[in-house]
Amino acid sequence: MTGPSTPQEQPSPDLIGVSTAPLLAPTNQLNLDLPESGIRLEYPGRLSVRRILGKLQPRSQKILKEFSAGSKQAKLENLLIEGDNLQVMASLYRYRGQVDLIIADPPYNTGNDFRYNDRWNDDPNDPDPGQLVTSDDGARHTKWMRFMAPRLEMMKAMLRPGGVCAVCIDERELFRLGMLMDDTFGESNRLAIINWQKSYSAKNDSAHVSTATEYVLVYARVREKAKTGLLERTESMNARYRSVDGDPHVWRSGDLGAKPHAKPEDYGIQSPFTGVIHYPAGNGRWRRKKSEIKKALEAYGSQYVEIADPNSTLPSLVLKGTSLLNGKLETPPEIVAKAAKRAHHFRETEIWPEVIFLSDGLGRPSLKRYLKDVKQGKVPLTFWADEEYEEPLTLGSQSWVHAESGHSQAGITELAEIIGSRHGFETVKPLKLITKIIQLWCPSNGLVLDPFAGSGTTGHAVLKMNHDTGSSRKFILIEQSRPERGDPYARTLTAERLKRVISGKWAKGKQPPLAGGFTFKTSCKQIDHDAVLAMQREEMVDLILMSHWDNKNRKGPMLETLTHKGYKYLVAKDISNNGYFLVWDGPHAKTPLSVSIMTDIIKEAADEGLKQPYHVYARTSHLMAKNIIFYQIPDEILRRIGFHEDISDEVQE
Predict the structure, then answer these.
(1) Cα-flanking dihedrals φ and ψ of residue 510, to 5°?
(2) Contacts of 551 (CB under 8 A, 6+ apart)
(3) What's the confidence (pLDDT) of residue 650?
(4) Who's near 76: CB < 8 A, 6+ residues apart?
(5) How crowded is the C-beta side of 383, counted as CA atoms within 13 Å?
């Protein structure tokens, strides 16, 4: 099947598969180091990923104050960048290898949500967004994979070693995304395939099975270094803990038996209530030390001894007076009766010990589990509805019901309440889903990157979590305009939503404001040696603000601009109150840092109350001093945006 042609290319049908043949392609054409034989994903354009990344050029960014929000300090913490996400990520060199969590909600390839430019294979810097890929395009799947492959590689490069990437998708491209992510991150780094319930009622969207779920594929850059957090415990979970015996600490019963163990360590426990000897189930063993169990049993008023038991590998704990007769442990009835009387009296008048017997003493031995000893959170396991788990297991493939993750209609309603009902979005990720992902895989002071920011749910979730929990997470959102609608909606939707939740001025009425802020930037011209030297002063200021980072804290706050104060050289300051100065009179001047200029710089620093050292950007310098940190233009700027770094080499790590 062949789809309609475009001016750029006659698209070929999707040819996607895997090969188990020896890998014959030269290694310099591959985007990953692969063994000499094995499974390799094949599709048209597959070998161009490294070449595409190698051709990417960083771009300058311009601050648009009218679309930014928050206090001066709050604006320095978060970023919203308008532009192509691949080009923008290539420009965020200071954050490369620094991101804790990436949440991506790429186009689902529905036939009306995805554009592709065939020239991107040769020039990923081409600004043309391309043609809409329709559902009858025979090459729609390979175009989508060629679009996603370099972006996934770039996302991986942005992650720190323990960082996690969570990508949302539906059934249209689920399997191809899975193959791409296995190929990019490695199957061994897959943490979870989450199945979340996007709707709670059947829809007439299929003649066979109604689609009520979507997926989140979660991969770590390095699985061994990644950490999965806990979810907040609910009131219903805590309500299961009570104190029926007057214990000052609430508890619930738990299994005294543990999982099977390689070394046989089973033995019997005789109930003081019935005289029945209980053994661990299967090949298991008891969860507590034998000495601890004996102490708990004797709290019921009778003495216990250890006697060899033909039914266990170790001597069993039995009432004193029990003996081995004819190959069987026997306890005289009068001893059992006395023990039962003492045990029932103790059960009715005292706080029970750690080992308990439920059903009025007739049950198997159980364990008291105290709420104070349970982790302050619930582990994300198998089916996230009403279950409670207290021992962590591997996530694997999970299902989240709408009560756990929210549903699509909730996301649409949330957006309408904030900016009004005429936002035009038919699918919006619910705040609860994104919040849950952040809680699991981003530390409380971590950095979240969303390269497909859309309506800004990720930024909203970060701000709300910081407000609710006192955390200090930061975000970087990237969103490209929608030219087919004639609307640069990074400004009219993404930024607007964030502004409204920060101010509390929702469309539905005043709401509690969320502390925080963000700087809005738009992606501009490509950067190279000549482009930097050709910049006007205002452009150079924007480039310094974009590119500068602290060697000790690359993902720390951005520089605060001071250009509005009218200084001749002072353009910014950092959180340590050090000043940043620019000696630049335009592309044709080669003004050096001289003694007279340095005198003016020192005066401006004093007027602003800044500390030493003085950070000075200039073309050349005639000075050397301990209180001056000199950055040569363009060399130092190019270094700080990673201009000479080969991204295609970095993604192989």
Answers:
(1) -65, 135
(2) none
(3) 57
(4) 519, 557, 558, 559, 560, 575
(5) 3
Instruction: Give the per-residue pLDDT at 588.
Output: 86
**Paired strand residues for 19:** 40
Question: What is the SS3 string spanning 371-384?
Answer: HHHCCCCECCCCEE
For 350, the token pair is 């005292």
- Cis-peptide, bond into residue 353, ω within 30° of zero: no
pLDDT, averaged in runs of 10, over the chain (653 residues): 40 56 37 52 74 86 94 94 93 94 93 81 80 87 91 96 95 92 94 79 55 86 90 70 89 81 76 95 84 96 96 94 93 96 95 93 92 63 34 43 53 85 72 91 96 95 95 95 66 94 93 95 91 94 92 86 95 95 92 95 97 96 91 94 69 50
Interatomic CA distance for residues 532 and 522, integer angstroms? 17
Phi/psi at 306 (5° precision): -105, 130
Query: Cα–Cα distance between 652 and 648 in angstroms, integer?
Result: 7
Closest CA to 458 of 447, 469, 443: 447
- Of 536, 515, 558, 465, the closest CA to residue 80 belongs to 558
Tokens coding 470: 């006192």
Report whether 166 contacts 181 (CB < 8 A).
Answer: no
- Which tokens sit at 434? 């994104």
Phi, psi of 512 (to 5 degrees): -60, 125
pLDDT for the residue numbered 390: 36
The DSSP element (H or E) to which 159 belongs, if any, is strand 159-169
By CB neighbour count within 10 A (0-12 exposed, 13-18 middle, 19+ buried), where does 446 fall? Answer: buried
Integer Cα distance of 5 and 25 in angstroms: 30
- In 3D, which of 608, 591, 602, 605 has the Cα closest to residue 625? 602
Phi, psi of 158 (to 5 degrees): -75, -20
Cα distance between residue 143 and residue 99, in whole Å: 28
Predicted confidence at residue 257, as pLDDT, reads 83
For residue 616, give both structure tokens: 């000075």
What's the farthest any 2 CA atoms get from each other in the chain? Answer: 108
DSSP labels, 256-323:
SB----SS-----EE-TTT--EE--STT--BSS-HHHHHHHHHTTS--EEEE--TTSSS-EEEETT-E
Which of helix, strand or coil describes residue 582?
Answer: strand
CA gyration radius, the chain: 32
List beta partners, residue 318: 305
DSSP state of 249: S
Residue that has been written with the tokens 């349970």 in this structure = 374
How high is the pLDDT of residue 51? Answer: 80
Buried b (16+ CB within 10 A) or exposed e, 502-525: beeebeeeeeeebebbbbbbbbbe
Tokens at residue 452, please? 């497909």
Joined together, the tokens standing for residue 649 give 């080499």
Q: State the CB neighbour count (10 A cutoff) for residue 242.
A: 11
Predicted TM-score of the model (pTM): 0.72
Residue for token pair 């500390």: 611
pLDDT at 178: 95
Answer for the pair 541, 555: CB distance below 8 angstroms, yes or no.
no
The C-alpha atoms of residue 431 and residue 412 are separated, in whole angstroms, by 10
**Residue closest to 518 by CA, chosen among 562, 563, 478:** 478
Cα separation, 428 vs 409, whole angstroms:
8
| Spacing of C-alpha 453 from chain mean position | 14
Amino acid in position 464: K
Q: How many residues comprise the chain?
A: 653
Tell me how far apart the alpha carbons of residues 131 and 334 are, in angstroms, rounded to a whole number: 90
pLDDT at 510: 93
